[in-house]
Design brief:
CATH topology of the largest domain: Trna Endonuclease, Chain: A, domain 1
Structural class: alpha/beta
Low-confidence stretches: none
Strand content: 15-25%
Shape: elongated
Radius of gyration: 26 Å
Largest sheet: 6 strands, mixed
Helix content: 40-55%
Distance between the termini: 43 Å
Mean pLDDT: 80
Number of domains: 3
CATH class of the largest domain: Alpha Beta
Oligomer: single chain
Length: 282
């Protein structure tokens, strides 16, 4: 039963690209058409047909109508609700990006909101942007698709430290391993000289906080040419990854620097402080 419902949800997601002023009238029409056959006695449907096979066929049609009068209507109404939810989310992201064009707002964003703002900024350039699942650690946070190809984006909401060459080199390697057309690293701060020199001449572009604000300001008040998907893209964790017991995200090995456990190692969730999951090292 759950498998059938999942198929309905998947089909509703596909239809959610169609505005509700089309799907809602279709839902009403589908219900009344199916209901018409669902309540009609089989014998009245078999006009001039005496064969048992014809009667059985009409009985099947009626049984299907009984189910479809609710199933099709539910699917179409769900798609309308998904479209509305996506529309509200797009408007929220657009308002957030417009506000983030101001340097004071950008600096005060949470890491999650910063990723959303970055995705919205690239959407204004015409990209179809999709954020990776929270806790995923594939080396990037956003996937961009366009006619030019597929690009990976890493968002670094670092307010103080500059992004170094190691970060740039790592993302460049991931982009090559995944056959991406190129990659972007976006930070709320700046990059070191070594990072800029490494990126020069390579298909990896560095966006400082100022460049991001300029991008957001350029798209302020205008409808984006692309879009941001409301469904996060799940990335597979490495086979040797340690997962968080609270959020199932990836964990990293850390060392306590204070308190009674100072000097001891443990696995901490990548989403800390949003998630406080940890595993002790034996």
């Amino acid at each position: 039963m759950s498998g059938s419902f999942n198929k309905v949800v998947d089909f509703a997601k596909l239809l959610s690209r169609v505005p509700p002023w089309f799907t809602l009238p279709m839902a009403v029409a589908a219900y009344f058409i199916c209901h018409h056959f669902a309540v009609k006695p089989v014998e009245t449907l078999v006009v001039g047909a005496e064969a048992a096979g014809d009667a059985a066929a009409f009985a099947i049609i009626r049984a299907l109508a009984v189910v479809f009068q609710f199933l099709v209507t539910l699917c179409l109404m769900m798609s309308a609700a998904m479209w509305l939810k996506s529309f509200i989310e797009r408007q929220r992201l657009k308002r957030l990006a417009d506000r983030a064009a101001d340097s004071g707002v950008l600096a005060g964003l949470s890491w999650e909101a910063f990723e959303q703002v970055v995705a919205q900024g690239f959407a204004s350039l015409g990209f179809e942007a999709q954020l990776t699942a929270e806790g995923a650690d594939g080396g990037y946070d956003i996937v961009l698709n366009s006619t030019a190809g597929r690009f990976l984006v890493q968002a670094k909401h670092w307010r103080e430290a500059s992004v170094g060459v190691d970060v740039v080199r790592a993302l460049y390697g991931v982009a090559q391993a995944e056959n991406a057309t190129g990659a972007y690293i976006v930070t709320s701060g700046s990059f070191t000289l070594a990072a800029s020199e490494f990126a020069a001449g390579k298909p990896i572009w560095l966006y400082t906080g100022k460049r991001l604000r300029d991008l957001l300001a350029a798209g302020k008040g205008a409808a984006p040419a692309g879009s941001v998907s409301s469904e996060r893209l799940k990335l597979p964790l490495p086979a040797d990854a340690v997962t968080c017991p609270l959020c199932d995200g990836r964990m990293v090995l850390r060392e306590a620097r204070r308190g009674s456990h100072s000097g001891k190692r443990f696995y901490g969730c990548l989403q800390f402080p949003a998630c406080s999951g940890l595993r002790l090292v034996d």
